TrEMBL record:
Protein name, as recorded: FtsX-like permease family protein
Domain of life from the UniProt record: Bacteria
Segments of skewed composition (Low complexity): 89-100
Its membrane topology: Multi-pass membrane protein
Transmembrane regions: 298-322, 343-373, 393-417, 438-459, 471-492, 513-533, 815-834, 868-890, 910-939
Location in or out of the cell: Cell membrane
Region feature (Disordered): 82-103
Domain ABC3 transporter permease C-terminal: residue ranges: 303-421
């Protein structure tokens, strides 16, 4: 007998039941439709944002047929692949001679007859902006030509038509604070251009570039540099030609082979889209051999499985409540001769009907929202969609996933409904059923095994074990949730009426409460795991961070030397445009003999200056040499850091040599340098400098309060000025200087080892020069202030350099944590709201009884709030605990890697903290549950209208 008539009746009953219970049906449809909407929108966005081969060619060639370019080996015969990317000289071809390399390639001679071409060349440049100065790239390309459509599009104004006109990308123009009609000056040749319009590159909306006509930037710049040797000549890229082939012919593979004979590489649209057979390609095939298809498939399957799990956990209780509210109808099916299978079919048909409705609604909403937010998505991804790409089979698969999810969510309620006796169904009695005693035992075993596997994976450095163990542990917690929910009922014995009823209702209806708690737990666990790992990694980076400057300071250093430095003008530029606090602390550099920073690779060499470090205990770093590895592994993280930053070890780490001091790190300065940059507030140290005694910041270089300074006074032939000041033969002097030794904490001061008074350096026969200033900042500088300061420094004319502190920025980490918290919060609110709505529908008889015995109207409102609070708070707390398992395991993996690095280099830190994201946890554990409870209470009616007698 065909089963179709029975299923037809089941679907008819399910459809009518869904139409009758519109609120519950809409809830289930929404739960199924939301993930389907998200996956549909993600699929459409991914496929549309991922350019096709034709779109990639348009982004590179515009509407041209091909791009021709010469190679750097001269006009030698080449072989290339059809993609126009890989090329080589034929095997056995001798290398080019210098004459061949110098011989230019006649690229236009390789064009097919009847072609039209455009030249393209770019050059890096520094240009003026409304705020100051910005670096960018200028392309000489006639972007007004129709051949560029699809690659460069005008967004405002007009294309450049004259040699003194220029256009810029929208991002550059906005960042520079420019407007159409403003003048843009290319620094160096000081050529001025009028900004005529803004353009965008559809394939790269964040491009930062300027466009001018061919011959309007590079050639005049080169002529100016030829006349004025102080101007640096331009460094343009190799020229390229965009070619439009003969009408209807394009650029064929035969044209490419002919161009290869002349040493020209060609990328043709026609050939790239329809490559020739391998037999016609002289060059052997090349393949990267790397594919991420397996990893991508695994990731997609994992995400899909998580989405299905979330839907089933949230929608399952809704079907269970629906089945209970329709138990009389299901009992009538049984009383009329319907089998248990037919009763199950009715419930499963309900899942299929609502699943299909959710799938259709989700797919339709996904299309609509993707089209609506397409401009915003394009701005976010950084490229325009060529078209909205739809893969029918993928969309159909997503819809089927929603349908199957609805059926899966109804599976457990269908099994329970099929097991109920006809008498129970007709009388409305639920019967008494005990919770499974096996499931919690299995859950505890799975939790213990999962934690063990995850920890083993972390110690062994195997992320597969970490992932598998974490999932197993989370499933173990899921198995324990019914027992935990049942235990909640015992907590309300001493509580007021409404929280006591809420806890007992959650414990009595575990089939409704446990899945919602599990859904909240799953979302919170993932968010807490990522947030914990992110916070821990950020804390590690902050712990290991080594600043290049003392925090809260900037340093101005000269690029020119001697009288050309003109530091007073540079100092004025910084002080007038930067948010400095207080006066400048001027400093100088010191050297012996000929200045090695000026005269490079001279025949007679340069002078040297060295601060000699004594040997022995207290002077040699324990983390270097014999026994260093064993010592490093025995130290705690704080002990290791203190030793690394100790005077004996601080110079063993690589640190940038700053302030023109060379390896000796000695600067010329006074008490203001100690106060502003070193931040050593010590009157004794200031007095020592005033008396001519150097202040030593690293005590490892002192012995008995003295340092050894070794100077080689060697002069080369070009250094006439210093030779005149110090005539005679080359000599080496070793001086013992009494110094003031600063506390050990100042040994790690970036860039400085000792501050020497100028009169002391002159007494020792050393050369000194004013070299820069230190400034304390009142606050961080804005972009506009930085650009203005750089422009003022440029006007000062000495190319002075302003060095800022490389502070640790955690804006991105904070954004990630906020997004995770919002995601988990939304899921928590949704799950709690769903459970509260089901509780109200499922406990209508209890609420009616409360009203009948005289309960105040506000009881309904407060009861809904506490029911919502119970689900949200329980799920968040369990999720926080579950989320710690993968986070801790992954940090153990990081610890393993850090210990391996420490064994290789004992100076490396193995500090691998586990930091709880208390802001995220607090938001999820306190704010979200309380908000859920308040919303549930506010949206619940406090009065009940009795239409008929309940029961």
């Amino acid at each position: 007998m065909s089963p179709l008539p029975g299923w037809r009746a089941a679907f008819r009953i399910a459809r009518r039941d869904a139409a009758r219970a519109k609120g519950r049906s809409a809830l289930v449809v929404a739960m199924i439709a939301l993930p389907v909407l998200g996956v549909t929108a993600a699929d459409l966005t991914y496929r549309s944002a991922l350019p096709t081969k034709a779109e990639e060619l348009t982004a590179e060639l515009g509407s041209a047929d091909a791009r021709f370019m010469a190679t750097s080996v001269g006009p030698l015969k080449l072989q290339q692949m059809p993609d126009g990317i890989n090329w080589s000289t034929p095997e056995g071809t001798p290398g080019p001679t210098p004459e061949e390399q110098a011989q230019p390639v006649d690229v236009p001679a390789a064009f097919p007859e009847g072609s039209r071409s455009l030249t393209e060349r770019s050059v890096p440049a520094s240009v003026t902006t409304r705020h100051g100065i910005a670096d960018t790239e200028i392309s000489e390309l006639r972007i007004s030509d129709p051949m560029l459509r699809g690659r460069v599009e005008l967004t405002d104004g007009a294309f450049p038509r004259k040699p003194n006109e220029i256009a810029g990308t929208s991002d550059f123009v906005e960042a520079a604070g420019l407007s159409i009609g403003d003048r843009v000056t290319v620094r160096g040749p000081e050529q001025a251009y009028t900004l005529t319009g803004t353009v965008e590159l559809p394939a790269d909306l964040r491009a930062d570039a300027l466009y001018a006509l061919p011959g309007s930037v590079i050639a005049p710049w080169q002529k100016t540099a030829d006349r004025d040797k102080s101007i640096l000549p331009p460094q343009p890229s190799d020229p390229k030609w965009l070619v439009k082939g003969p009408p209807g012919a394009g650029v064929t593979w035969q044209d490419i082979l002919a161009a290869n004979e002349r040493g020209v590489v060609v990328k043709s649209r026609q050939v790239a889209l329809n490559p020739p057979p391998d037999s016609e390609v002289p060059m052997s095939s090349m393949s990267s051999g790397y594919s991420t298809e397996t990893e991508t498939t695994a990731a997609v399957l994992t995400v899909a499985a998580m989405a299905v799990l979330e839907i089933v956990l949230l929608a399952g209780p809704a079907f269970a409540v629906g089945a209970r509210r329709s138990r009389r109808q299901l009992g009538l099916v049984g009383s009329c001769g319907g089998s248990r299978g037919q009763v199950r079919a009715v419930v499963l048909a309900g899942g299929a009907v609502l699943g299909a409705g959710g799938a259709v609604a989700g797919v339709g909403a996904g299309f609509g929202l993707t089209a609506l937010f397409r401009p915003m998505i394009e701005d976010f991804t950084g490229n325009r969609f060529g078209e909205l790409t739809v893969r029918p089979w993928e969309i159909l698969g997503i819809a089927v996933l929603g349908l199957v999810t609805g059926v899966l969510a109804a599976l457990a309620p269908a099994i329970v409904a099929g097991r109920q006796s006809v008498l129970e169904s007709l009388t409305g009695r639920r019967g008494t059923r005990r919770s499974s005693r096996v499931l919690p035992v299995i859950g505890v075993i799975a939790l213990t095994a999962g934690v063990g596997i995850a920890v083993y994976g972390g110690v062994a450095g195997d992320t597969a074990f970490v992932a598998g163990g974490s999932v197993l542990a989370e499933l173990g917690v899921l198995g324990c949730i019914p027992v935990i929910v049942g235990f909640l009922g015992r907590l309300g014995r001493r509580l007021p009426l409404t929280p006591r009823i809420a806890l007992r209702d959650a414990a009595r209806n575990r089939g409704r409460t446990a899945p919602a708690v599990a859904a909240v737990m799953a979302a919170v666990a993932g968010s807490v795991a990522i947030a914990t790992y992110t916070s821990s990694s950020a804390a590690q980076h902050a712990y290991d961070f080594e600043p290049n400057l003392t925090p809260g300071t900037v340093a101005l250093t000269a690029s020119d030397i001697g009288a050309d430095a003109e530091l007073p003008r540079s100092r004025a530029a910084v002080e007038q445009n930067y948010p400095v606090s207080g006066k400048a602390a001027d400093f100088g550099r010191v050297w012996a003999g000929s200045d090695c920073s000026v005269y490079y690779e001279e025949e007679n060499g340069c002078g040297t200056l060295e601060l000699v470090k004594p040997t022995g205990k207290g002077h040699s770093c324990p983390l270097k040499g014999k026994g260093a590895k064993e010592l490093a592994l025995r130290l705690s993280a704080d002990e290791h850091k203190r030793m690394v930053n100790s005077p004996a070890c601080t110079d063993e780490n690589y640190t940038m040599v700053a302030f023109g001091t060379g390896d000796h790190k000695i600067i010329i300065g006074g008490a203001d340098v100690l106060d502003t940059y070193v931040q050593l507030d010590d009157p004794a140290a200031a007095k020592a400098l005033a008396d001519g005694t150097p202040v030593l910041l690293n005590s490892a270089y002192a012995k008995n309060g003295e340092v050894t300074l070794k100077a080689t006074h060697l002069y080369n032939d070009r250094d006439k000025e210093n030779r005149a000041q110090h005539p005679g033969k080359a000599r080496t002097t070793t001086d013992r200087l009494k110094v003031y030794v600063a506390p050990d904490r100042f040994a790690a001061t970036p860039g400085i080892r000792m501050v020497m008074p100028e009169k002391t350096a002159e007494r020792l026969g050393l050369h000194v020069e004013d070299y820069g200033s230190f400034y304390a900042l009142g606050r961080d500088a804005t972009d506009a202030e930085s650009q203005a300061a750089y422009a003022a420094l440029d006007r000062a004319g000495n190319r002075a350099y302003l060095m800022s502190s490389n502070e640790v920025f955690r804006t991105q980490d904070d954004t990630i944590l906020l997004i995770l918290a919002l995601f988990a919060g939304v899921v928590t609110l949704g799950a709690a709201a769903i459970t509260t709505g089901l509780s109200k529908a499922d406990a209508e008889a209890d609420l009616t009884t409360l009203s009948a015995v005289g309960a105040p109207p506000g009881v309904r409102r407060s009861l809904s709030g506490f029911q919502c609070l119970v689900v949200a708070l329980t799920g968040v707390l369990l999720g926080t605990v579950a989320g710690l398992v993968p986070a801790v395991a992954l940090r153990l993996t990081d610890l393993r890697g850090a210990l391996e690095d420490m064994r290789a280099d004992p100076m490396q830190s193995a500090y691998t903290p586990i930091v709880m994201p208390w802001e995220t946890v607090g938001l999820l554990a306190v704010v979200v549950p309380v908000l859920a409870g308040l919303l549930a209470a506010a949206l619940t009616s406090s009065r009940l209208t009795l239409a008929r007698r309940a029961g």
